[in-house]
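Chain A, query sequence.
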Amino acid sequence: MNALFEQYLDQHFSVIALRILIALLLSGLIGFERELKNHSAGFRTHILVGIGACLMMLLSLYGFQSLIDAYDNIRFDPARIPSYVISGIGFLGAGTIIVYGGTIRGLTTAASIWAVAGLGLVVGMGMYSTAIYTTLLILLSLGFLNNIENKIIKKKRSKAIEIFADDDIEINALISVLEGYQVSIKRMEIVNESQNSKQIIIKYERGSDVNTVALINDISKVEAIRTVNDSE
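Chain A, predicted structure.
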């Protein structure tokens, strides 16, 4: 029985289990903040990334210990496997980035996934205080600084409207509606989807006092417009 226990639960198991648990808790906190804001990568995604990165770090530290003990001439680099984690996690972050209309969404969530992978590696090394301190700073940045950004920096913010309309739409009528709300048009893109329909993407800058709902409602009343989609 003892032999079986030693075979599957070696001397490093308690350390490994503790580090994986800490990685779960810290990455889960960041994922929970993303989940509250309804982002594409939330609670479970961040936990899986954090635990996975921690596991790779632990593999690098302890996975080859038996070979090193058995052969004196074997040398290894414990940073080799984690380096692939850091470079490889980008594909998952890219999956959370969405180009919607004239704007790009998901960059912050992609960055948080990359940061959580780093947290997992740090916890896997046993640097608990560094991991906890970094987690607190990330949560502060995602929460507190986001409120400051909304109140100060984004009093005027760029937005985009995606419009699907019939081919005979009067562009001047559409522009007149936007000018009536005193918004500044930054860019307009017109795509001919077929002979009978068009996709119009308008990127504009609005003041904090503009009623977006009323704006979209008035745009939808323009003749030949089928649908209107608004994007931050």
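The beta strands are 98-100, 103-105, 157-166, 184-192, 197-206, 225-231. The mean pLDDT is 78.
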